[in-house]
Amino acid sequence: MKRSREPEDDLEPDSPEERFAGSDVAQRSPAKISELDPAVADDNQDDSLAMRCSLPPHKQPISFKSHGDYETHYHQFHTNRCLECHKNFPSDHLLGVHIEEFHDSLVRVRRDKGEHTYSCFVEGCERKCMTHQKRRMHMIDKHMYPKNFFFAVTRDGIDGRRSLLVDSGHHRRRSSASTRPKETRRRASTLDGSRAKNDPAPPSPDKGREEPEPKKNDAADTDMADLTGAMSALQFVPSSIRFGRGRAG
């Protein structure tokens, strides 16, 4: 008698290969496939994704390999940027000083009235000066700022600058100071040359000496001496006359 197959018998594998395949699927089912892991997929996507910045003043979008690089760029170039003139500043305080000096009409009216409107660059210092020159002196004397600091930062911003120190002006002053002695010596030599051309040459020692005049005739000198001796021998007063003595009485 042939036995009928039960439904449970249909579920059993007919061959060892099918039995092995079924066990393999059962073992792999709870495992996590790395290609479909969301965390791994996000990491791979971050490596290939390039973030771009198209904010002003960039004329062309700038690409970044990571979100951290983009945040660094944004804080450095776009956090303290003026919305009116699109200039960038190193801190929020200097951005406020820039807006106060160049974009605030009320402050401009107060400045025209002669009030002190130039704020100090040091955050927390409440000193206000009448001119930017006096503010510069205040910052050098009070806050020990270097003299070659870029004090025009509130006017020009920091776009295109690598340092807030002005080195070119220092070199220019030093070079001009070194060239002044050369120009002075050159000018003095030119004046000496012109004087030498205009002034007559000094007489030489030999020419300055007076040459003895040529002697006169020796015979004439001898005759004059003889005549003088003969004249002195003559007696023009009579012998009977005596000076200084009275007549004998």
From TrEMBL:
PROSITE patterns: ZINC_FINGER_C2H2_1. It comes from the Eukaryota. Residues 206-219 have a biased composition (Basic and acidic residues). Residues 82-103 form the C2H2-type domain. Residues 1-39, 164-230 are annotated as: Disordered. InterPro entries: ZNF511, Znf_C2H2_type. SMART domains: ZnF_C2H2. This is Zinc finger protein. It comes from Tolypocladium paradoxum.
